[in-house]
Amino acid sequence: MKIMKSYIPSMFFLTLVNYAKLLFNKALTSLGLFEPPSPEEVYYSDDGYIFFTDGRSRSLVSVPIQVLMAMIKDNLSIIENGDFVERMGDHEDEHVKNGDDDMVCGVCLEYMEKSDEMRELCMRSIEPQKHLNGVPTKWVSLFCFVSFFSGVLVVNRAVFSIVYRFWDILDPVRTEGEASSEPKHRINEDASIQAGNVLSRVSQTRNVIKALDKTISTLEMQLAAARAAKAGSEEGSPMVTKSRTSGLNRRRKVFFVMGIITVLNGRKRRDLIRETWMPQGEELKRLEKEKGIVIRFIIGHSSTPGGSLDRAINAEEEQHKDFLHLNHIEGYGELSLKTRIYFSTAAAKWDAEFYLKVDDDVHVNLGMVSSILARHRSKPHVYIGCMKSGPVLAQKGVKYREPEHWKFGEEGNKYFRHAAGQIYAISKDLAAYILVNRHILHMYANEDVSFGSWLIGLDVEHIDDRSLCCGTTPPDCDWKAQAGNPCGASFDWNCSGICKSTERMEEVHRRCGEGNRAIWDTVSH
User: Which residues cross the membrane (predicted)?
Assistant: First the structure.
């Protein structure tokens, strides 16, 4: 391709030179100064001479052009003059090679007597005449060469642009180096912009699809929860006692429901909570009405319905009206089942934004908990608590042993990340999920591990909030309370709750509490 492009100017120049020669000969012919003989008889030289071939010997005879013109003018036929041809033929080899003009002088002397004009021309031809009207062929060539390159300097861009375009059309396959960098740069920029627009649209479409998926998932959860609540109210829910099924089909909207897990003989712990951080009587009703905060002690029944423990719970309920009764037999090692029933029952009874589970040996600041939950109201699937990952205990006889330890891999492995069981919260969609799938949710030995396993495969945001697990010994929760930033919940890790809670709950509340008015100054539902 490059060879062809470099060859084009040379061919163009040679064509111009030949064309100039042709024009020059035509001009002589039109002026009557020269009639071209047969190509077999005449040859042209570059020094102003014309060579004739002898018809007999085919030897060359050179004659100055001026003398030839004069001979033609006087009707002298060189070809017919055998004497002239023979003379010139005898000396052709020597004189042509040496460029000697003696031969020319000899020819001229033969015709000097024919006319004065011929004599004058022959005498003048003694000095070699190599110019025809002052314009030799070499000067014509030089003039054409200079003219050509002058034109190239003026119209270089236009000429070569046309040539290159012509060859580009003939040869569309070009290498990278032959292509212009500016169009490439412009094409690359356009391609980058188009690619960016496409990626932006793809990202926007993906976000819209995700939002639609979450909306559909939420609607499905709500529909399933409503169906489960309706079925429970009509057929007698296994989650609650029949005496408590009335009103399941009338779910009231609230901010959050807090369930305090307690046992049949835990009256003292319950009373300490009522006396410290949990409102009682009319204050409890007002809290539910104005702030949308529902607080209930979660209790089942004994293995002998109607026994002394059940009667004691009924009497306590008549006094405080702060229980949520479950259709569940209280017993050791049934905490995972009780937790599952609680969330299912609460989701069927109240349409809350959040559902919390709290142990009855934990101190809670309701105002701080309310503020923490309010920060996550816009999130559909949240799991809030103090996240941890403890070891899977396989040894027999140890506390918190996991009988199904083999499901968690090799010995020495840890559990997946989950919230500590002392206090945690979930959003409404997750509670609805538990309600709908309550019959197929697997339970492990430890309640917090069981609950974490129910959510591990879902699209859930785990929120690790360490203000929900402050220690009760100085300077943890009390210093934060003095600084005006009290903890949401306090307990002792080594005791899985407040150590000796029946003796220390009041002390912890005095040192770490936020004040009785804090809950009323928080946002409402």
Answer: 139-167
Question: Are residues 107 and 84 in contact, defined by beta-carbon separation less than 8 angstroms?
Answer: yes
**Contact between 250 and 348 (Cβ < 8 Å):** no
Six-digit token string for 27: 């001009």
List the beta bridge partners of residue 387: 419
| pLDDT tens digit sequence for 448-502 | 999 999 999 999 999 999 999 999 988 888 888 888 899 999 999 999 999 999 9
- What radius of gyration do the chain's Cα atoms show? 58
- Dist. CA 507–CA 500, nearest whole Å: 11
Per-residue pLDDT tens over the stretch 203-253: 788 888 877 876 776 676 667 666 666 665 554 444 444 434 444 457 889
Question: What residue has token string 């040679």?
Answer: 14
Q: How far apart are CA 333 and CA 420, in angstroms?
A: 17
How many CB atoms within 10 Å of residue 277? 24
Per this entry, what is the length of the chain?
A: 525
Q: Which among 326, 309, 342, 272 is positioned nearest to 503, based on CA atoms? A: 272
3-state secondary structure of 255: strand
User: CA distances (Å), 179 to each of 3, 164, 186, in order?
Assistant: 17, 11, 12
Q: Please name the residues in contact with 245: beta carbons below 8 A apart, sequence gap of 6 or more.
A: 232, 233, 236, 237
Q: What stretch of H or E contains 52?
A: strand 49-53
Phi and psi at 10, nearest 5°, equal -60, -45
Give the DSSP H or E segment for 349: helix 335-349
For the entire predicted model, the pTM comes to 0.58
Q: CATH number for the 242-521 domain, one of 3.40.630.10, 3.90.550.50, 3.40.50.2300, 3.30.470.20?
A: 3.90.550.50
Domain boundaries defined on the chain: 2-138, 242-521
Which residue matches tokens 């109210």?
Answer: 233
Structure tokens at 446: 């430890």
Work out whether strand 350-359 and strand 418-427 pair parallel, antiparallel, or are unpaired: antiparallel
